[in-house]
């Protein structure tokens, strides 16, 4: 695992934590992607026909907005979710996915508003609260983001993802000991996930605690993570 790719990937992963797509495309299979896009266009056309022939249906409009998302038609999706919310102002799906679309247009203030409204309706909405923390970071409100992550962990103490998200933010805030604790908790909750291990080790190496880093790697191998996945970090511990 190349450390440069790891750091680049980690940043994307943390941004995407709260905002997951309904279907994952294989970016390396262009023909499959093209076929999928064509399928979604056909789906959108069929839904538009149904909408034109029926009375108001929240489900149909949510399905239409989802097709817009899949086609990366962000503004169309935003407009469609807005239409749903004019009929049902507390609809959780419309609030969450409109926020998702807003982030793609870098309209983070509007995304924050929708996520706050979502959490007023569903206070324990895991993806919503985690997403709000990510959006607050994009707005430069890191302490507020940390408060949201603290609340996320309080509500969902068994979530490795929540601890990892908080560890990443604590690292940015130079709260290194707190970040080390959270990476350790993430490992305990998801012991076969190499991403948490290398994040933990990477911080230990930055702090020049090589022996401790080596112990973390050895423990990971004993838990069943292939040594080859961690070879780069084992090598760094020898330097």
Could you list some keywords that capture this structure?
239 residues, 75% helix, mainly alpha
What is the C-alpha radius of gyration, as a whole number of Å? 21 Å
Compute the number of helices.
13
Helical residues, percent: over 70%
N- and C-termini, Cα separation: 18 Å
> Unreliable stretches, pLDDT < 50, 5 or more residues?
1-32
Overall body shape: elongated
Give a short account of the largest sheet.
none
The helix-strand sequence is HHHHHHHHHHHHH
Report the strand count.
Answer: 0
State the secondary-structure class.
mainly alpha
Mean pLDDT, to the nearest integer, reads 86
Beta fraction of the residues?
A: under 5%
Give a description of the structure:
With 239 residues, this protein is an all-alpha fold. It is built from 13 helices and no strands. α9 packs antiparallel against α10 (176-189). The longest helix has 24 residues, at 30-53. The two termini are 18 Å apart.
Furnish the topology, listing elements before pairings.
Layout: H1 3-16, H2 30-53, H3 58-70, H4 74-87, H5 92-104, H6 108-121, H7 126-138, H8 142-155, H9 160-172, H10 176-189, H11 194-206, H12 210-222, H13 231-238
Helix pairs in contact: 2-3, 3-4, 4-5, 5-6, 6-7, 7-8, 8-9, 9-10, 10-11, 11-12, 12-13
